[in-house]
Amino acid sequence: MHTPKKFTRREEATTQEKTILQKIHLGHRDGLDDAIRKYGSYVSAVIRNQLGDCSREDVDELCMDVFLALWKNRNTPIQDLRAWLVQVARNKAVSFLRKKKLPTVPEEEALLVEDSEAEKLLDVRERDRLLREALLTLGKEDRHIFIRYYYYNQPTARIAEEMGMTLSAVKNRMSRGRKVLREKLTERGYEHED
Q: Cys-Cys with 190: which of 79, 106, 117, 185 at CB 3.0–4.6 Å?
């Protein structure tokens, strides 16, 4: 007689995560609904803890931003959904706090931007657009390494572990990738600043 295998809580959670991630990757919105149902209160708690004293509306808005980021990144491989959501939630909360601490400028004054400031802003936006285009020229694995490191602030050791690579392989790919990105930006007129 065959006894069915009992799963540990973590194995069961991992199986559920894989199912959710697979649905999201295939573009099924019910996968996103499942993620919100399963992790929504957890993500809210992470945001509340990060923000401290804040309104429920702020927490709800940031929470939805986290799940929107999950949907927008549905083609990015995610090994540990819960950890990914926590990292994005923390990043969103920190960004929110930074924005909140900035002094607000009255609307009339916001319209009075000096030409040099406007040029700098356009220059930064153009550089960011070119950088995104240059990222697309990297191989898929290299691109994922850069996205994880620079956009999700993952340490190289974690990237190596989650992508099944050695730490030195990740560092070598980052070094080569930086060189390629620097060359692409230089071709388009942007000089590298150390």
A: 185
